[in-house]
Amino acid sequence: MTELAGGTRSWSDAVKPYVQKEPLAAFFLGVSSGFPYAMIGATLTTRLAQDGIDKKAVTAFTLAFLVYNLKWLWAWMVDGVRLPIIGRLGQRVSWLLLTGVLVMAAVANLALVDPAAGLLQTAYAAILVGAAGATFDIVIDAYRIETLKPEQLGVGSGMSQYGWRIGSVAAGALALVLAARIGWHGAYLACAVFALPAMLTGLVLGEPERHREAAARRGMGEVWQSIAGPLVEFFRRRGAVLVLCFILLHKIGDTLANLTFRLLFDDMGYSNDEIAIYDVGIGFWAYLIGIFVGGILYARMGMKRSVLVSLVLMCVSNFSFAALAALGKSNWGMAGAIGFENFASGIGGVTVVAYFSALCDLRFTAAQYALISAAASIVGRFLTGTTAGALIERFGYVDFYLLTTALAVPGILLFWLMMRAGLIDASIGTAATADSDKAGGSAT
C-alpha cells in the first residue's frame, strides 16, 4: 500500500484495499465460518436453559467446541483427497461446497432434536455441528489464504474477522428472534442459510489462483506422507521450534484475562444493563474499529512491526483491567478498559492471523493452518481455563490481572528476539511470497 497522503486521498488509499474482490471474498467466507460456532455456543445454551435443562448439563455442552482443537487430525484430507464428480470444480471449491452442505445438514439435525426428550441425542447433534463447522473452517481458511495476494494478507485477515464476528452475532440474534415466534426448530433451520455466503463465494470466484496441488494420494504410504508432509516441511525451516513456542505461548495472558471479565464485573456490582452497554455495545464497535486499524497498520508497518505493536497493546489491555479493579466501580473506567481491550484484540486479530497465514506452504495450506490455529488456542482452553478462578481467589483481581500482564511479556520478547535474529523472515511460507511458483512440487 502506498504512503498515505493528507486529506481525501489518505482515506481513499485506506479504504481501497478493503473493497477489492479478494478481501471482500474473505469477508463472506468469515460470515459462514462464524455461524456454526454461534449455533453450539450461546444460542444452544439459551435453548437448553429455556427447555429447563440442568445448569451442569448445559455447561457440559461446551465440550463440543473441543472438536475445533482436533481439526488438524483430518485437515490433510482437504489438501490431498480429490472428491469424485464435483472435484472437477477444483480442490478448494469442491470441498467448500461439500463441507457447506454438511454444516447445513448438521444444523438441520440439531434443529430437529428435542433436548427435553433426549439430551444425549442433542449432545451428539451438537458435536456433529462442531465437527462439520471445524471442517468448514479448514476449507475456508485455506481458500482465504490462497485467494489473497501476499500484500493482502493483513486486510484480508481483517475482513475475515469482520465477517466472523458479524456472522456469529447475526446468526445468534436471528435464532433468538425466530425462536420467540416460530420455535427453536424453525430458528435453527433458518440459520442454516448462513453457510451459503462461503459456498457462493467459491462458485463465483472459482479455484484460487495460488492453490498448489499436493501429490496424489493412492496408497497408505502416500497417505502417511500427506499427514507428515506439512509437519516435516514446517520444521525444516530455520527457527521453526521458536515459532512454535511463540504460537503456543503468545495468548496465555490474554486468554486468562478474557475468561474472567464477567466475573470481575459481577463482583464489582455492575448491572446486566451496564454490562450490555459497555461490554457488549462499546466492546463490539471497538473491536470492529480495531480490525480496521489493524489492516492499516499491517499495510503501513509491515508484518513484523505490526504484530509486535499488537502484542504490546494486548499486554497493556490486561493492565487496564488491573487498574479498573484497583479503581473500583466506574462506568467510565469500565468503558475505557473494555474499549481498549477490544480495540487491541481487533488489531491483534488482524496482524497475528495474517502472520499465521503467512506461515503456510501453499501445498499444505489447509493442514498447516489447522495445526497453527489449533496450537494457538489449545493451551488457553486446556490450561488457563482450569486455573483462572483459583488464581483470582488466591491473589485477588488486581494481582491476577497484573499476573496476566506479566504472562504476556514472554511472547513479546520472544517475537522481538525472532525479529532481531531474522527468524520471522526465514520461517514464513510461500503464502507470503509473491513468487508462488516456489510452492510447486509434490508433497514432502
TrEMBL record:
Signal peptide as annotated in the record: none
Q: Name one GO cellular component term.
A: membrane
Q: How does it sit in the membrane?
A: Multi-pass membrane protein
* Protein origin, superkingdom: Bacteria
Q: Which UniProt keywords apply?
A: Membrane, Transmembrane, Transmembrane helix, Transport
Transmembrane stretches, by residue range?
24-45, 57-74, 95-113, 119-141, 186-205, 240-263, 275-299, 306-328, 334-357, 369-392, 398-418
The record's section on InterPro entries has: AmpG_permease/AT-1, MFS, MFS_dom, MFS_trans_sf
Q: Which Gene3D superfamilies match?
A: MFS general substrate transporter like domains
Q: Where in the cell is it found?
A: Membrane
GO molecular-function annotation terms? transmembrane transporter activity
Give the matching Pfam families.
MFS_1 (PF07690)
In this protein, which residues make up the domain named Major facilitator superfamily (MFS) profile?
22-423
By its UniProt entry, which PANTHER family does this protein fall under?
MAJOR FACILITATOR SUPERFAMILY DOMAIN-CONTAINING PROTEIN 3, SOLUTE CARRIER FAMILY 33 ACETYL-COA TRANSPORTER -RELATED
The UniProt similarity line reads: Belongs to the major facilitator superfamily.
What name does this protein carry?
PAT family beta-lactamase induction signal transducer AmpG
Q: Which organism is it from?
A: Sphingobium scionense
